[in-house]
Q: What sequence folds into this?
């Protein structure tokens, strides 16, 4: 008995001596491993493959897979965090949501793997600061970057002689052209609320700028300020002119995307994942659909790109934190970043990914992001979660009663102020 | 029968038939959509009779790589049958204790139990979640089985107590005189008598537990413990525009309760109407 | 030995069910009551006891009063439309004709369906372009009425309510049918002999005899209406912009979407208190009808 133990000890020392790499080796990872994500119908299969590959590389690991629908994930992950039984790692949107659960002490910082694998050199500093660092520590690894732009039906634009607008006036003129032809210019599927926010975000970014928007998102400016009222009045002008496909609140984002694909509407303001959706329908980027950046409204306002960043985080209560952290490192592999980006039609945050691998649309979008001095998170990730809910409802309300925007803004401000006051 | 009365009857059935047609539209829609090919649906005909009986929607939602309903159906059965059994068993015990014995506070206890029938389940959502987590049952079918057992106790107790109350007292007394103890009376004499009531409860509990989605949604996460209703809802979130698949999944998910509806209707209705009639 | 302690035997039957019931129903409910006095976010590690602050806040919360208003509308509609329709169907189908069995079966078929499935099916029915509701309205020339029912603020609640009533009506019919079997036929015959027409018989004889069934229907409807969550959640999630929020939906949204679990719990407590009022009323009515018939 004693001999056997001794033998094991000697072996262990020998093995430890042989292992040169200081990072986690495959043999360290054992036991059950749980990874949850919100990539449902779009991108879900790719992330599942990535997780399965990771588990297959580590013999000691055993994974129980369970894809969850995007909308349901938002609530189910919180229940799991509240119950202190979250998955080891899960996908989460960078910004206010991660901030909230970091403040709630539900995540663990990942500075150790960050340093050990020199991850800081693999991502743009802007992303590290804005999307991964919370309360001064690194908490997340970025998987994809999305960018919000106007995606349009190329055939329809050609047929009506419309060029991609670069100014506000051109955008309005294009919308008017389509209206004359009996086609609503803008499809918007705000059934699940969030697609409406891109209009608000873009108008505010283009008219008031990112600095002002930051203040609004942090409760330091008011929804009744002239800046916000102006953005809404422009949105209202478009809505009152009948440029939007009727009953935005009746359709989900993919239905709106299909309205553009079918030629029932000309364009839709959406994130890059719409490209993945279109490609799954057999449409070709740059031929059947294309994009343009939301037009400049005020020349003096520095432009900003807008979009969410998907990250993976490690639960504070993770049962298998070693596997979770190893998985996060695995996700930073440029090949994996590219594989997911290509599959889902998005961009890989890693600077080691060859930009030449993307389709023409995504390659050009990469240029847009590089050219814009700022990158902003969309509204529901940029502000307090409770305020985000108030705002998301108000966008739906606006699409139903655009003319009442001043009343809507007053109510939003009242409710948002109460939430900010409670959170202080 | 005079003419006036005949006309009235004809009018009545005319109106009833119109009502019935309106009532059956949703069911009709689900059935015809489920059997249509994607191309036929895309052609715009959601409500027309399908030109052929396509089974591709069923194949897709049952496919482990896609809808995976086969697994979820199995889970639902593994959950619903024991949960029905346990809730009825515990309800029978409680119903017997309250229906056949008088003791101080029995009325209050009865009301306390029956009041649970009216509890909005949302009120207990988070505490139940934490409790299941603390005892290590989160994300297992057992968590859902236990919670449905517990929340089923009120209705089962109510039904069984009322049942035992009308069982003649003489039966028990005669057995006591014959030297039987209380427990053999319960198991040997009373339980066999309760079979009709048990059948009523079985149909009710099965249907409710099978159809529930809130508890399994909150208490389970991984596919291995996902129930059919949670699975179906997940499917609609992932494939918003796939009506064919949703319809096929809805039909499959309703089969067990439809089976009860067809073959055990009498018991099911008895269960629904408890308390509506005195006696 | 056992005879001397009469409570031991019932206690032995009651122990296990009570243990399970208290552990998994009463205890969590009490726990929620406790959370309603805290500012717990739900996901946060710690929280503070804030006394009645949540309750003070909730009564000035516009969304809460909106949810109360919607719940009141829902309750008022639920107590009338499906109840009367269920009663009418029961009266029409109470005869012994063979065909009635088929009609009855089909009318209560929706009872055995899950709210999830009912929600899914009714969402297609209301689909603005391809839903049968609008296809029908267009086919009879009512183009203007063919609107996006679930997306319009003034129709969403009613549209969801109709879907919910689809199930509730059949349930009410079944209960009324059972109640009708206890109306003594000689009594009805006697009224006819006395020269009463159908309406007079209905109002003077049948409806009063249906009192126990009516109490059950109204109590069940009220409780179901207050609890109604699943169909609404599947169909609209309370939208568009809170126009189909009922109290149960409000509670869920506050707790799980806004991450204010303590606040959501206080809404749950209010919901429970409202339910309690109905339970008390119900038991009093049941007690009354007991006296009437015994």
A:
């Amino acid at each position: 008995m004693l001999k056997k133990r001794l033998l094991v000890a000697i072996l262990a020392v020998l093995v430890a001596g042989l292992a040169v790499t200081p990072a986690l080796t495959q043999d360290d990872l054992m036991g059950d491993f749980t990874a949850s994500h919100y990539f449902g119908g779009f991108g879900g299969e790719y992330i599942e493959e990535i997780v399965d590959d990771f588990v297959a590389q580590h013999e000691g690991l055993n994974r129980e897979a369970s894809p969850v629908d995007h909308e349901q994930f938002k609530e189910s992950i919180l229940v799991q965090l509240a119950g202190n039984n979250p998955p080891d790692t899960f996908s989460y949107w960078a910004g206010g949501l991660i901030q909230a659960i970091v403040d709630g002490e539900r995540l663990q910082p990942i500075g150790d793997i960050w340093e050990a694998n020199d991850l800081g050199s693999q991502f743009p500093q802007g992303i590290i600061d804005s999307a991964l660092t919370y309360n001064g520590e690194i908490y997340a690894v970025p998987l994809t970057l999305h960018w919000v732009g106007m995606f349009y039906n190329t055939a329809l634009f050609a047929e009506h002689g419309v060029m991609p607008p670069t100014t506000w006036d051109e955008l309005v003129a294009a919308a008017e052209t389509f209206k004359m032809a009996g086609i609503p210019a803008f499809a918007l599927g705000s059934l699940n609320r969030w697609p409406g926010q891109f209009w608000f975000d873009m108008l505010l970014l283009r008219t008031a700028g990112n600095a002002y928007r930051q203040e609004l998102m942090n409760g330091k400016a008011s929804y009744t300020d002239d800046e916000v009222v102006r953005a809404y009045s422009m949105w209202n002008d478009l809505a009152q002119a009948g440029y939007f496909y009727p009953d935005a609140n009746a359709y989900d984002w993919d239905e709106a995307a299909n309205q553009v694909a079918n030629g029932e509407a000309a364009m839709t303001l959406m994130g890059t994942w719409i490209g993945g959706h279109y490609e799954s329908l057999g449409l070709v980027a740059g031929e059947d659909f294309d994009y343009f950046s939301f037009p400049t409204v005020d020349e003096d306002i520095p432009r900003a790109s807008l979009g969410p960043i998907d990250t993976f985080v490690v639960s504070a209560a993770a049962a298998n934190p070693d596997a979770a952290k190893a998985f996060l490192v695995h996700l930073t592999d440029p090949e994996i970043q590219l594989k997911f980006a290509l599959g889902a039609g998005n961009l890989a945050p890693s600077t080691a990914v060859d930009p030449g691998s993307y389709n023409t649309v995504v390659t050009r979008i990469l240029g847009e992001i590089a050219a814009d001095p700022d990158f902003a998170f969309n509204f529901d990730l940029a502000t307090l979660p409770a305020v985000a809910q108030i705002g998301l409802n108000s966008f739906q309300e606006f699409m139903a009663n655009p003319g009442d925007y001043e009343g809507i803004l007053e109510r939003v401000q009242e409710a948002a102020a109460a939430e900010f006051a409670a959170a202080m | 029968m005079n003419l006036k009365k005949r006309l009235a009857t004809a009018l009545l059935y005319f109106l009833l038939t119109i009502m019935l047609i309106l009532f059956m539209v949703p069911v009709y829609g689900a059935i015809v959509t489920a059997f249509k090919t994607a191309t036929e649906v895309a052609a715009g005909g959601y409500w027309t009779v399908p030109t052929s009986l396509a089974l591709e929607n069923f194949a897709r939602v049952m496919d482990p790589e896609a809808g995976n309903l086969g697994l979820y159906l199995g889970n639902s059965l593994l959950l619903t049958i024991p949960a029905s059994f346990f809730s009825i068993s515990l309800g029978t015990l409680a119903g017997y204790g309250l229906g056949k014995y008088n003791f101080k506070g029995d009325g209050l206890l009865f009301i306390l139990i029956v009041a649970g029938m009216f509890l909005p389940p949302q009120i207990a959502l988070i505490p139940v979640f934490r409790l299941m987590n603390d005892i290590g049952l989160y994300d297992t079918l057992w968590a859902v089985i236990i919670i449905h057992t517990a929340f089923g106790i009120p209705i089962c107790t109510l039904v069984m107590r009322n049942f035992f109350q009308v069982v003649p007292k003489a039966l028990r007394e005669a057995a006591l005189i014959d030297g039987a103890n209380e427990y053999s009376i319960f198991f040997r004499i009373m339980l066999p008598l309760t079979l009709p009531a048990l059948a009523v409860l079985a149909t009710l509990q099965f249907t409710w537990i099978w159809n529930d989605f809130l508890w399994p949604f909150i208490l389970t996460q991984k596919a291995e413990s996902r129930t059919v209703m949670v699975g179906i809802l997940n499917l609609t979130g992932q494939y918003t525009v796939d009506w064919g698949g949703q319809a096929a999944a809805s039909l499959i998910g309703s089969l067990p309760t439809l089976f009860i509806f067809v073959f055990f209707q009498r018991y099911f209705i008895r269960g629904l109407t408890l308390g509506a009639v005195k006696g | 030995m056992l005879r001397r302690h009469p409570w031991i035997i019932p206690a032995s039957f009651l122990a296990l069910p009570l243990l399970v019931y208290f552990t998994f129903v009463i205890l969590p409910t009490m726990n929620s009551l406790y959370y309603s006095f805290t500012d717990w976010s739900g996901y946060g590690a710690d929280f503070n006891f804030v006394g009645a602050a949540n309750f003070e806040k909730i009564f000035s919360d516009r969304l809460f009063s909106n949810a109360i208003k919607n719940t009141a509308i829902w309750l008022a509609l639920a107590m009338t439309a499906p109840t009367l329709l269920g009663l009418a169907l029961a009266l029409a189908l109470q005869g012994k004709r063979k065909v009635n069995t088929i009609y009855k079966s089909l009318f209560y078929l929706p009872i055995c369906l899950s709210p999830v499935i009912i929600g899914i099916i009714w969402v297609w029915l209301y689909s603005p372009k391809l839903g049968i509701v609008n296809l029908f309205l267009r086919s009879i020339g009512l183009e203007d009425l063919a609107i996006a029912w679930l997306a319009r603020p003034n129709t969403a609640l009613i549209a969801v309510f109709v879907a919910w009533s689809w199930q509730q009506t059949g349930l009410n019919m079944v209960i009324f049918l059972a109640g009708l079997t206890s109306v003594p036929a000689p009594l009805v015959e006697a009224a006819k002999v006395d020269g009463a027409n159908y309406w007079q018989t209905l109002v003077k004889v049948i409806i009063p005899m249906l009192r126990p069934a009516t109490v059950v229907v109204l109590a069940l409807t009220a409780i179901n209406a207050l609890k109604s969550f699943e169909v609404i959640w599947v169909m609209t999630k309370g939208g568009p912009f809170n126009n189909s929020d009922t109290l149960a939906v409000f509670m869920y949204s506050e707790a799980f979407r806004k991450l204010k679990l303590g606040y959501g719990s206080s809404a749950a407590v209010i919901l429970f208190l409202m339910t309690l009022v109905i339970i008390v009323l119900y038991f009093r009515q049941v007690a009354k009808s007991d006296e009437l018939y015994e």
Observations:
- The interface with chain C takes residues 74-75, 78-79, 81-82, 100-101, 103-106, 191-193, 246-250, 385-386, 389, 393-394, 396-397, 400-401, 411, 415, 422 of chain A (CB under 8 Å).
- Chain A has a mean pLDDT of 88.
- The two ends of chain A are 62 Å apart (CA to CA).
- Residues 223 and 413 of chain A are 5 Å apart (CA to CA).
